[in-house]
Each structure stands twice: as structure tokens, then as C-alpha cells.
Amino acid sequence: MSFGDKLIEFWGKPALAVDEDLLLGQAFLGYFPAATMVWFQFVFAGITAVLVAGAVLGRMNFLAWIVFVPLWHTFSYTIGAFSVWNPNGWLAKMGVIDFAGGFVIHVASGIAGFTAAYWVVPRSDKDRKRFPPNNIVMMLAGAGLLWIGWTGFNGGATYAASTVASLAVINTHVCTATSLVSWLLLDISVFGKASAVGVVNGMISGLVCITPAAGLVQCWAAILMGIISGTLPWYTLNKTTLFTHIDDTFAIIHTHALAGALGGIVTGIFAAPKLTGLFYNSEKYIGLAYALQSGRTFAGLRQLGIQIIGIVFIVCLNVVVTSLICLFIKIFAPLRLSEEELEIGDDEVHGEVAYVLDCDDDRRFENFKVNSVYEADEYPSVMSKVSSYELHRV
Questions:
Q1: Which residues form the Ammonium transporter AmtB-like domain (predicted)?
Q2: Among 149, 153, 309, 315, which residue's Cβ finds the most Cβ atoms within 10 Å?
Q3: Which domains, ranges and CATH numbers included, belong to the chain?
């Protein structure tokens, strides 16, 4: 529905993904079977839903989420992807630039997640006040895998091993490193200490910001984009209360929606005509900075305007569609876990616990009593963790 032949103005026919002859026999852009392109885009779509989940983590009813995902993919993601990436899409015809999903994936997921968080309503006050990572070492390991994986995320968007793909990879890492350092320096300057969580946020903001421009800007522009992505989202996250009334668990409104929108706008300024010509095989795409230099001011202003139109469309699409989906689900299922279930924990509702580290969860000691010195000595690892609990002797 995102890449098939035009069905209606904003949807494609899904035949490509279910027709074996097309999947195996049709070469996409002359380079590889269509099945490869279907898989690549399938993973993009899957990633986008995971990002939406980050905004409602810790309190959304799992059954409601199961219904939400296919509805959102069908009525939101595919419309955005068709409009921006399909040659028949209205934004694609207009000339919007989104190299690897800054609009389709990151602005969409950030806005959809934030909207869903509004309808699901916040977590418990206790969870909002204190929500440290379960394991910072694992968080950093995951962040490293994410950064490495983005090489394929942006580099693979050309569907070819080309000069544009090579530049996309270099720009991705340059922008991300610059963004990470910018965020880190702000943390140190303002809060007096570096933060592992801050480093990861800076990294993600940089990855997202470069995504719409990865293979279409020069390396110096990628550095500038890294500075922007490492400062403005840092400011909105740490120094404003604009978004705090909605419980966006992982702050994706800052690191994805805002960073993606900034990347899309800056792309409209710094997209190099030589590079856009290689990628799009057209001279009509030109950043405002190059347009002013070459006397094509109107073309540059038009490109910047198109980028803004694309962002506004994706924002409006996801606010409306996500709200309608949530309201529909509320008819037959609660969007949020009950207060009792939140007290137990959203993982234990399923009868499982994400991290069981030598019984370190306070809830496990709720009814715990040690009845004798002998028994206390028998369980030294437990005793070391219950100093704040009343110990009873027989």
C-alpha cells in the first residue's frame, strides 16, 4: 500500500507484496528482486511502530496495543509513505526530500506516540517521578547496536552500492558524533556532569536529524546538522515545560519528532544540487543556500516551503488518525492499565519480570519476614537487601 501502483490518491495496491511472480521476478530499479525492497521497507515500518511504543511504555493495555499497531500501519504509516516516497504520491510529485525516513518514520512516530500518550493518559505518579534505566550497560550496548544499524538504515536507502550511499554512511556517523558531543557538552556546562542517558539522547537526535538528508548534503552540512540536533532538542527536553503535561515516556517528541522536523527543514537549505541530481536524476531539487548562490532563489524558497508542507502534513495526519484509532479502541477496551495493574508492574501483568536480580524489587519483600537468626544467616544475600524492613524473631 506504500509502494504499489496507485489505488487511490494516497494508497497503493498491495499486490506487489503478495504476488510471488512479482516478488521474485521483478528487479527493483534494475538491481535486485522486489522481495528485497519489500523486506527492507517492512523493517522500516516495524521500527516506526516500536518508536511509537516508546511514548506509551509502562502503562498501555497490551490488548489495546495489539489492535493499535495494524490499524496505525494501515491508516497512517502507509499514507505517509505513499505520499512522500511513492512516485505517484502527491508530496513526491511536489518534490519533497526525505532521503531515508525523517518525515515518514521519525516525525510520524514522534507525533503519533505523543498523541497516543495523550489518549492513554500518564503513568502512575511514582513511575513518573523515578524512572531510571533498568540497566545502563545494556542501554549503552543497545545504543551502540542502533548506531551501527543506522549504517544500513540510511546507506541502504539508495537501493544501490553507490557514491550517494557511501556519502550517506559518512554523513550519518559525522552528524551523530557531532550531536552526541554537543549534547554532552551542554550536560556538563549546565548540570556539571556527563550523563550516559544524555549521550544516548544526543546520539539518537543526530541519527534522526541526518536521516532526511543523509546522501544529499556535504559533510560540513552534516556537522552543522549535528550541532543543531544536539542543542535544540536538548533545550526543549531540559529547559522547557511545553510538552511535560503529556507523559511521553521516552521523550520521542524531542528526539524523533523535533529532530526529524529540524532535519527536514535543514535539508531544504543545504541539499546540494549535484547530489540530489545523482539520487533523483533531476535538477529540480536544490537547497536554499545553493539556490541563493546560483541565482535560483525562487527554486530554493520553493524547496524549503515544500519541506515545511511535508512536515505539516505528516503532523496533521498522525494527530488525526492516531486520535481516531485510540477513540475507536476505547469503545471496547481500555487504553491504559488499571491502577492496581500499574502497581504490580506492566511486565508482571503477563506473569513475567523483565529483570530478576537477586530479588532486588521492593515488592518482593512486601510480606517478607525473617523468623530467626538461624534463618537470617541461611539467606545472607536476602538479608543484605532488607535492612529497611522489620525483622522478627520467634
A1: 31-355
A2: 153
A3: 6-342 (1.10.3430.10), 356-383 (no CATH)
